[in-house]
Amino acid sequence: MNRLLITTAALGLVGSMAVAEQHTSDTSGGSSASMSDMQGELIRTTDITGAPIYTFNEAQDEGWDPDFTYDAVGGDWNQVGTISDVVLDQSGNLRGFVAEIGGFLDIGDKDVLISVEDANLVAAEEYAWVTRLNEEDLESLQGVGDDFWD
Q1: Same domain assignment for residues 50 and 117
Q2: Which pTM was predicted?
Q3: Which of these ranges, 30-34, 114-118, 120-124, has the smallest mean pLDDT?
Q4: Alpha-carbon gap, residue 31 to 44, rounded angstroms
Q5: More confident residue, 104 or 91
Q6: What's the domain count of the chain?
Q7: Alpha-helical runs (H) found in the chain
Q8: Distances in Å between the alpha carbon of 66 and those of 62, 70, 96, 144?
Q9: Taking Cα atoms as reference points, which of 105, 119, 103 lies closest to residue 53?
């Protein structure tokens, strides 16, 4: 009986290690050499910075899916600014964007942080982003200047 319990426990441990190993390899992103196999699936930050950011006419609080990707810019969306930078946390995870909003010809504009939870990719011919926040929500966000990053 003890041998059966020990064997069962050992098999359970090995099985859980195999599951953990499988899970780890799925989220690792692969090796540097295998990244070339991902051609067409990767986006460079240079393709994101300078991209327009749009908003819906109304805030999209209900039914917003932060993982959804649009394939075209909506005809009724308003361009409210551009992405000026990409924000990572200290672990290297994408956390959001710095968006330059408002103003005209760089006069009166403001840089704000937009979380990835509040923005969706528009994977059209040229990349763009749409945020669930409306223009008033964006303008009420705290501005982030160079001193914010010090």
Answers
A1: yes
A2: 0.69
A3: 30-34
A4: 18
A5: 91
A6: 2
A7: 2-27, 45-48, 135-140
A8: 12, 11, 12, 23
A9: 119
